[in-house]
Every structure is written in structure tokens, then in C-alpha cells.
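hi support,

uploading two proteins for the ticket. first:
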Amino acid sequence: MLTRLERRGTVQHVCRYPRPSGETVVRILNLLAEVLFPGYFGKASLDQANLPFHIGETTNTAFDLLAEEITRCLIHERERAGRADRQQCEDEGRGQAFRLLEKLPAVLDLLDGDVHAAFEGDPAATGYDEVIFCYPGFRAVMIYRIAHELHGLGAPWLPRIMTEHAHRITGIDIHPGARIGHGFFIDHGTGVVIGETSEIGDNVRMYQGVTLGGYRFRTDPEGHLLRGYKRHPTVEDDVIIYSNASILGPVTVGRGSVIGANVILTYSVEPGSTVTIEKPRHRIRQRNEDD
């Protein structure tokens, strides 16, 4: 085994420093959920008197854990390049953790809009409480919005660990690099995929099984995949995308459009478009006594 491990060139796990902890990342997400929606998440019994103390204590705990996990990610990313300076990574980790916490009020404003969009978009919703407590689409979007801010700060690994946790518990896969506007609602949610370079405008609603994916990936002259270019769709404001629709490639869905169920779209459509597949023909056979 040692000989085989020494020969392994692409995957190397040996490092002097601990790797990021998935369990700790989940704890961080739970703590941040408590800060964003106190009383909805966590086990503390809260009132107006102890709320400031609870928010402060929870935020401090989240900061310490977050700074440590970012530091671990930075060390391991730079260890491969032979330039890991632990003190520098610790300083950057604390700085990124602090800047993420500074962004939480803006994240909360976005999430409040998402809760409102879910309630207004689903006649089965009985209130905002149900959306926050029960809707997997909201949970996935909440985690995405935290991860997206961290992704924008340049933290490696950790944003993806966060959104993959959301993927596991909700069945919704949103890359932290995607850009999503105000009032976003995923109804039902299972099987939704939103790729890294997707851009989604305000007041967009989508249903289960929707894919915003890539199409015909580019390669360099040696056949290696190119990275970092626009590969996924742009969905403008006020669009509705129904179940199991796939929108593939760097195409644009114009404002106010409706994409019907099971559509596969690989070209741009103008604002106000309605795209559906042709109505299928049904064959109905009555059972007889011999069946």
C-alpha cells in the first residue's frame, strides 16, 4: 500500500495539517441559520430579553469555527503548490470569516424575499413559518446564499462543501458560483441542478427536476477541458420554469418567459416567450374480461 500511495500522482491526502471537517461545516451552517432566523432553528428558548445575547454568542461561535475551517482549506490548497504559510492562512481565514459575517444582514434581506416568493408562489403554503420550517427549496437556497458570499470572498473548498451538504439533504444541487437574484423560489425541488456560471434574475420560479446545465464543453488543443468560461444559461427576471425542463449552454431566457415541463432548450428565447413541447398522443385501451 505504501508503494502504491507513493506512486499516486493525482490524489494525495498526506498533509501535516488537518483537512476541513464536514461535520464542523454542517455545525457552522446550523449556527448561521440560528443567527438569520432565531427561534426557527436551534434549541434555545428565546425572548426579546435574551435575543441579543443569543445572537452574539452564536455569532462568536460560528466565527471561530468558520475561521478555522477556512484556514484549513487555504493551507491544503496552497500546500500542493508548496507555498502554505500557516500564519498567513490563519490571518486570511479570520479576515474572510469576519467579512462573511458582515454580509449576513444583506443575506437576510435576500432570504426574506425568498420566503415571501415561496409563500406567494405556492397555494399550499399556510404561512411563512411553514416555508422556513418545511420547504427543502428554501433550505437549499439559504445554504447557497451563505456559500455564494463565501465563494465571492475567495475561500476554497468550503462553499462547495456547504452546497453539497444542501444537495445531500434536499436533492437540490446549486453551485456556489451561480448568481441568483431576489425572490427566488424552487417548488418541490428534488433533482434541480443549477450550474456554476448560471445567472438567474429576480422573481424566478422553478419546479422539480429543472436543470440549468452546460452543453458541449470546450477543450484545449491537448483535449483537456477548459474552465472558467460562461457555460450555463442566463435566466432573466420573472421567468417560470416547469418540472424536468433542461436549459443547456450559455443561452438566455428572456424576461417574463415560461418554459414548459420536459422542454430541452439549447437556444436563446426572446422576452415574453412560452416554450412547450408538442402535446403527446395518448393511447387508451380498455381492459376486457379476457385480460
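and the second one:
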Amino acid sequence: MDIIETIKSRYDGLTKKQKKIADYMINHIDKMSFITMKELSDATSVTEVTILNACAALGFPSFKEFKYEARKYLGLREKLFLHESGDLGVSTIPKYELDNKKELLKSIAEEENVQWENYYASLDYEALFRIAKEFVYRKQIVLCGRGVSKMLAEMISIRLAGCTIGSVVMDTELNDNIHMGLPLIQNQTLTVVISFPDYYFMTEKIAEYAKSKGSHVIAITDSKEAAITRFSDDVLTVPSHTRLFLNTLSIPMGLLNVLTSAIDIEKNFKGEGKEAIGSLGSYFQEKSWWKLGK
């Protein structure tokens, strides 16, 4: 029985004020994952004690357990939607493309190489150093993502550790992970949200929550139109798809290499911005390791 069914099954036994809370919960289930008790109290014009009593009447030991079940429900709903819509990023190679497998693979490699070179040419080093300062001077860093995005978050965390900068990785698909990580997101926290198609909804919710807490939010995604950008102070976009895959790690990893290099330089140059920017550009001009097939 999911949270909506649970509320409806116990609805008749609630008091008038508890029913008012239950109605709000059902009608605004998308907000329930991260809503505070005070916010719910203000929205329903009831006391926080009444909310706690309503949670108990609905079978939840505490308000935290209620929010946990709300996140679990939203996660399952999203997975069902993707399954029913068939929007799972699965590609099928046309038969005519398989006539020459070697040429097909070579053309895919060349396409990805051109994509990276075009992206590299558009890099804004001033913006990269401005963002790098957030990593160096913020008291706390939380990196959020799911699936491929979580892999990128873990890579950033490893690189930050090499710069003696601590960070926490939050898997936005795991309720326990979210439950433990949310208290870390405060106004002095740098929250980095990473989201690529299929743009997992819970990562967007984390970005929204972080913004509401006054955290500085950096989004790493493939498009300025991605939902997480609405709640972000800084946005880094990078192409992530290839002919065969919805998401590839190669070009986003290239961005992370540049970004974490900027962070390391920023920490060592201590404010010598112009010299640092020149060094970063020169470093990546000299390197050719990103060029596939060369």
C-alpha cells in the first residue's frame, strides 16, 4: 500500500483538522518530500502538534517517516512512468548501419571527437574560475546525482579529495541516502546537482530544496532548459549523448577534468586570477588525450 492509499484508507477516522492536513498531503504530494513542518503548518493553518497527531493517526511514527514514504512514492511513480512511456534511452541500430561495423564505430568515434573539440572551443575560463572559487571557499560541499550523474559526482569527489577538499555524494535515487544528506544542505553549503536525460525528478527536487535553504547551487547538465537550472545560481552545460547512447561519460568527464583543474589552480594561485586563467587554457591546449582516434 503506497502513501496515497494509506492516507485514503485511514481518512474516515481522522478529525476535521487532520482531514485538512490529509487533503493537503494528497493534493500536493510532489511538495511533501522536502516540506518542513512549519511550512506545512503555515499552508494548512494548523499547529505543528496537530500535524504530528495527524501523522500518528495515518500510521507514521513521525513527520520524517511521512516524508520518507512520500519520496519513496514519488520515486516509484517516476519509474512506472518511464516504463509505460518506453522512454528509457534504449537505441536500436538500423540494419543498414551494420553492413560495415568498423566504419560505423569509426564514425561514432569521430563524431564524439568533433563534439568535444567544439565544446572545448566554447569553454568560458572566467566562469570556470568563478565557479571554482565556490568549491575552494565554501564550508561544505554536497554532490547530487543518480545513475550516470552519480558516477560524475563521485569523480568530482575523488578529484576534490586530491585537492584536500572534502565533499559528500548524495545518490538521489536512494531514500536513505537523501534522508541522511538533507541536513547537510544549509546556507553555507555548495550544492552541486548533476542531471542528464532522463532528468531524474528527485535531483530537481534536491536543487529546489537547496535553493530554499539559501545554498549556492551549481547545475551540471546538458541543456540550459533542464529543470534543475531554474533553481541554480551557476549552470555548466555539456553535451552528453551519442548516436547510440542517451548519455556518454566522455565529454562530461572532459568538463570535470577542466573544472577540477581550475579548482586545483585556484587553490594554489591564491587570487592570481589572470595568470591562473592563462595557465588553465595553456594546459588544455597542450593536451591531446581527449582526441579520440588520434
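thanks. also noticed: Confidence is low (pLDDT under 50) at residues 80-90, 286-294.
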